[in-house]
Every structure is written in structure tokens, then in C-alpha cells.
Write a structure and sequence with these properties.
Elements: H1 2-10, E1 29-35, H2 39-52, E2 57-60, E3 76-77, H3 84-98, H4 100-104, E4 111-112, E5 115-119, H5 122-137, E6 142-145, H6 147-153, E7 169-173, E8 177-178, H7 181-194, E9 198-200, E10 205-211, E11 214-220, E12 223-232, H8 238-245, E13 252-261, E14 271-274, E15 279-283, E16 289-295, H9 307-320, E17 329-339, E18 346-349, E19 355-359, H10 369-382
Helix pairs in contact: 2-7, 2-10, 3-10
Length: 413
């Protein structure tokens, strides 16, 4: 293999294969327009083409492919949620993630590590037991573990009873994993493009065209497009797009910051989370510690980083792993989290006919990428939300059918 690669590299006239075809001219009409070329929008385009034979699709993005929240998340995949609806939904996503590299013929670097949610109080222990029972009842591998088992699963963790934030136990979710976020986006994009889907970057949607309560097209920075159906998948900009279409969303958009350290020798296999301390950490394949904390305490459409957030993250991180005191932070960034009142997403139909929504993900959009793409594609193709996403409809707020997932949040909000 190495000799073959050398020969390939030295071969005269060698031209690398394009990952995506050259960007096509934006046509005046498509069957479906998808607003947002992040993981969710690209996955929906792929499944529309693969499962439903709908290939006359334009994916539109004001920036670049996978350049929004897909590029700014911390790549954790899990299904240890609190509500039966949430557990079933995210468990389907894990099953799709496991086979995604083979299906897309693109390595997404999916790595199952196990996910530990720490409990520091008796109240937190009760919540972990509750989650474990809900998970096990639905066939998801989660269990409460004590300090002895926790020491075996994560030896570097500070389990000193005299620590500033003593640990009493943890919820161990064995299928917890990480994946490469940009690989997921590019894998879906390439697979969708091979089936005829067009991806148009630097194409901002500036208006939604409707007639008699039905969507008829979109206005873009490159001209008007007529289309029979529109799917909105724009994360932090969800409320802005919905307003263009003429309806309001129960969403507050807040910055969510994260950072990575300099690379270290591998020492942290599981993903470690403390909802009480508002921190989570995993170690990437390159050795970097990927760390996150709470959302900012106020609504803001800004992706700036703050020293205050980094200082607030450092104290609890050092309480869990004191030996990290001299480790340097290399990069810090922020995404835009679209938070709903019940900490659950909004998927499915809207008051505008043939205008579909994929929003309200807050801090768990990446882990839902495959299942949301697959099920939203089914919704667009059939006009009817399938059972896995039916509970997450927009109408639940008016009908007081909220799905309370705050107890399963990895960080405080």
C-alpha cells in the first residue's frame, strides 16, 4: 500500500478526483428547496434522493457547506435522554451513525467511547437513576455506577471524597460516541450530489414566497426560485427564517461556547459530563481535549468568544482533572443554540402549507443528524410526519404537550 501511494503521487498528469461536482447554475425552479447546508439539511437531501427518488433538490446556504453549527459543535453522540420520545429518537440516530461510514463510503471517524454523566448531589443521583430506568426500559444501554466502577472506567477522574465537588456516582451510557463533524457533512453532501442534488453555497435566502397560505418559492441573493416544497434547517437562524414565512417560533437563540486544548497523549477514553458543574469533555483522535460549558445567559446573535466563559470552565474542569493545570487552550469558538422552552426540537409541519421545519436543537443537533435527515426527508416526501418525530411538532406548545428534556441536558442552560 505505501509503495502504491508513492507511485500514485509521482504519476505525471495525476489529477485528484473532485469531491463535489462544479457548482451548477441556479435554476429558476426546483421540486424542493432546503435552506441550510449543514448536517441536517444535507442529510435530508441525501435521504430524499436515496429513499424517495426526489433528486430535483437545491440546498441553499448563505455561507459554505457545513460552516454553521455543524462546524462548531463538540461531536458527541448519545441517546441517554429522559423522555421516552427522546430516547427512541436518538437511539435510532445512533443505529444510523454506526453504519454511516460504510453507507456513504466516507470515513466519519465514529468512535464509541462510553458516556459518563456525573452526580454530585443526592438529587442528581435520583435523576440519573430515573434516566437509567427509562433507558433500560426502551432497550438503551445505560446504568448507574458507583465510585469503584467509575474508577475503573475513568482512572484519571478525581474521586477524592474531600474534593471541592465530590462525585457520588454516575450514569454510564455505553453507546456514547464521538464522530468527525465535518466528515458527516461532507459525506452526506458528496452522496447527495452523486444522486443529482445541487448544493449552492454563498446563496442567502432573503425571503419566503407564499400564496394563499402555501409556499411557492424563495427569494435569494442570486435571484428568485420557485419550488413546491421548502425545508428550513438553519439552527440559530430558525426564528429569522420562520418570520420571513409569516409565523413565530417559541425559540430563544443564545451563544454556546467551546474550546480545545493542545494535543496530549491519550488518557481519556470516555466522554465525561457534569450537568451540576456545567462542563463536559472528551479527547479527540488528535489528542486534543474538546471542552464545553453552559450557554451564555442572554439571547444574542453573535459567535464571539469570552474570557469570562473560559474562566468559568477552568475551575470545575480542574476540580475533575487537577493535573490539567498547565495545559494550554489552543482554540475557542461559539455557535448559536436555538433553545425551546422544553429543551426538545421542533420538527415537521408549519402553519404554511408545504413549508417544513427542523429547528430548536439547542445543544444536541449534531447527534440527531442522521435520524433527523431521514425522518424529515420522509415528511417532505409524504407530507406527513412519521411517528418518531410526530411528538416534536410545533403545535405541542399551543396544546401544552411539552416534552421536558432539561433533566437530560449535558450542561446547564
Amino acid at each position: 500500500m505505501p509503495l502504491g501511494l508513492i507511485g500514485h503521487g509521482l504519476r505525471a498528469g495525476r489529477r485528484p478526483r473532485r469531491a463535489l461536482p462544479p457548482e451548477a447554475r441556479l435554476r429558476p425552479r426546483y421540486d424542493v428547496a432546503i435552506i441550510g447546508a449543514g448536517g441536517h439539511g444535507l442529510a435530508a437531501a441525501y435521504y430524499l434522493a436515496r429513499d424517495h427518488g426526489i433528486t430535483d433538490v437545491a440546498v441553499l446556504d448563505k455561507g459554505w457547506l457545513g460552516g454553521g453549527n455543524t462546524a462548531r459543535n463538540t461531536t458527541i453522540v448519545r441517546s441517554n435522554y429522559l423522555t421516552p420520545e427522546g430516547v427512541r429518537f436518538y437511539d435510532e440516530s445512533i443505529r444510523l451513525f454506526r453504519g454511516l461510514s460504510g453507507e456513504l463510503d466516507f470515513n466519519i471517524l465514529y468512535s464509541e467511547r462510553g458516556h459518563l454523566t456525573l452526580a454530585h448531589t443526592d438529587a442528581a443521583l435520583r435523576t440519573m437513576r430515573w434516566r437509567a430506568e427509562v433507558n433500560k426500559h426502551l432497550g438503551v444501554e445505560s446504568e448507574m455506577v458507583g465510585l469503584d466502577e467509575l474508577a475503573r472506567l475513568c482512572p484519571p477522574l478525581n474521586l477524592d471524597r474531600g474534593a471541592r465537588f465530590p462525585i457520588l456516582g454516575a450514569l454510564h451510557h455505553k453507546p456514547g460516541a464521538i464522530a468527525r463533524h465535518d466528515a458527516v457533512a461532507w459525506g452526506y453532501a458528496i452522496a447527495a450530489a452523486r444522486r443529482g442534488v445541487e448544493i449552492h453555497q454563498n446563496t442567502e435566502v432573503t425571503g419566503i414566497l407564499t400564496e394563499k397560505g402555501r409556499v411557492t418559492g424563495v427569494e435569494t441573493s442570486r435571484g428568485r426560485i420557485a419550488c413546491g416544497k421548502v425545508l428550513q434547517a438553519v439552527a440559530g437562524s430558525s426564528s429569522l427564517l420562520a418570520a420571513m414565512a409569516g409565523f413565530r417560533l417559541p425559540i430563544q437563540t443564545v451563544p454556546l461556547q467551546a474550546c480545545v486544548t493542545e494535543p496530549l497523549k491519550p488518557f481519556l477514553d470516555p466522554i465525561v459530563v457534569s450537568g451540576s458543574l456545567h462542563v463536559y469533555v472528551s479527547q479527540s483522535a488528535r489528542g486534543e481535549l474538546v471542552m464545553g460549558g453552559p450557554t451564555d445567559p442572554y439571547a444574542l446573535y453573535s459567535q464571539r468568544s469570552t474570557l469570562e466563559w473560559k474562566e468559568g470552565l477552568a475551575a470545575p474542569m480542574l476540580a475533575l482533572f487537577p493535573f490539567l493545570a498547565e495545559v494550554r487552550v489552543l482554540r475557542q469558538w461559539a455557535g448559536l443554540a436555538d433553545m425551546t422552552p422544553d429543551f426538545s426540537p421542533i420538527m415537521g409541519l408549519t402553519p404554511v402549507q408545504n413549508y417544513y421545519i427542523d429547528a430548536g436543537w439547542g445543544t444536541w443537533g449534531f447527534k440527531a443528524t442522521p435520524v433527523c435527515g431521514k425522518r424529515m426527508a420522509e415528511t417532505v416526501a409524504t407530507g406527513k410526519p412519521p411517528s418518531p418525530i410526530a411528538p416534536f411538532d410545533l403545535g405541542r406548545f399551543a396544546a401544552f404537550r411539552q416534552l421536558g428534556e432539561r433533566g437530560a441536558a449535558s450542561v446547564g442552560h
